[in-house]
Write a structure and sequence with these properties.
By secondary structure, this protein is mostly helical. Helix content is 74%, strand content 0%. The protein has one domain. The chain has six helices and no strands. The longest helix has 27 residues.
Amino acid sequence: MKSKKDNIAEYILYLWQIEDYLRAFPEKASESTELMELYDMMHMEGIVGGGHLQLAQNALSELEDLHSELLDTEAPYRAVIMHLQPTLNILKAKTDRPNMSDVEACLVLLYQIMMLRLQKKEITPETEVVVKDATQLLRFLSKTYYDNETAV
């Protein structure tokens, strides 16, 4: 399994992808111990039909806490999020959860782009710019998270 400490944003996206995979192909859960454990967790948490594992929710919460901290202390970080804000607000308005956090909106954006690329669908140049900015933001968050975890 991907390590939360190494790249927390990739870890969350990985868990979301595995959740979707196991929903689409439940019979594949028996292919590995890791898949079976995650599928069992999905059953225990009642999210086989939708939602996210507590593991993913906890990691997202940690990332959101770090995001709040960085907004208060890092001007370059604040500038990136302010630049992204209008696009994130549009993205949030198009979902069934318009009050999701900015960090979750960035992750949702990247996950949706990943799905579009898997389907070999075209992504507009404007969207690519937003993806680049969201990736930059999540990369900074993940690196800061990693630095904080390895400093302990």
